Amino acid sequence: ERRRVLIVDDDEVLLRTLVSLLSRWHVVVGCETGQEALDHLERGPRFDAILCDLMMPEMDGAEVFAVLEEQYRDAAMRFALVTGGALSARGSALIRSGKVQVLSKPCTQEELLKTIHELAIER
Q1: Which of 11, 12, 79, 80 is the most buried (most CB within 10 A)?
Q2: Is there a contact between 8 and 31 (Cβ–Cβ < 8 Å)?
C-alpha cells in the first residue's frame, strides 16, 4: 500500500535521493527545513510516516518533534529521527526517552521501508 511520507533533511542531495528512491513505493514529500515540514503538516493532508534528520540548522529534529507533540499528536506518533551520529543534548534526551524510532545514517533501503511500514501501521 502506498503511504504518504514526509522526509526532512537539510542535505539537499540526500533529500533528493531519498525522495526519488522511496517514490517507487510511496507518495513522498521532501523538505529541507523543519519549518517547511511544519507548514506541510498545517496544510494537510496527514502523513503516514515522518523521517526527520536530527542535526539541522535553525530547527533541529528534536525541535520539530516538540512542536508535533504540542500541535500534531498523531504526527508525533508517526515520527522517526535520522542521525549520522552527532547528537545534541536535546536530541540525546529525546532518543533516550524512547518516544521516537531512530535510524542511523547511512541506512539501507530495507531499513527505510521497514521503518515507514512500522510508523504507518503500528502506531
Answers
A1: 79
A2: yes
Q: Report the pLDDT averaged over residues 34-46.
A: 94
The DSSP letter of residue 121 is H
Mean pLDDT within 46-54: 96
Q: How far apart are CA 40 and CA 60, in angstroms?
A: 16
For 44: left if phi > 0, alpha if psi spans -120 to 50, otherwise beta; the answer is left
Cis before 45 (ω within 30): yes
Cα distance between residue 22 and residue 60, in whole Å: 23
Contacts of 43 (CB under 8 A, 6+ apart): none
At 31, which helix (H) or strand (E)? strand 27-31
Parallel, antiparallel or unpaired: strands 4-8 and 101-104: unpaired
Residue range 36-54: average pLDDT?
A: 94
Q: Regarding beta strands 49-53 and 27-31, do their DSSP bridges make them parallel or antiparallel, or are they unpaired?
A: unpaired
First to last CA, the chain: 16
Please tell me the distance from the alpha carbon of residue 41 to that of residue 48, in angstroms, as a whole number.
Answer: 11
Here the cell at position 25 is 513505493
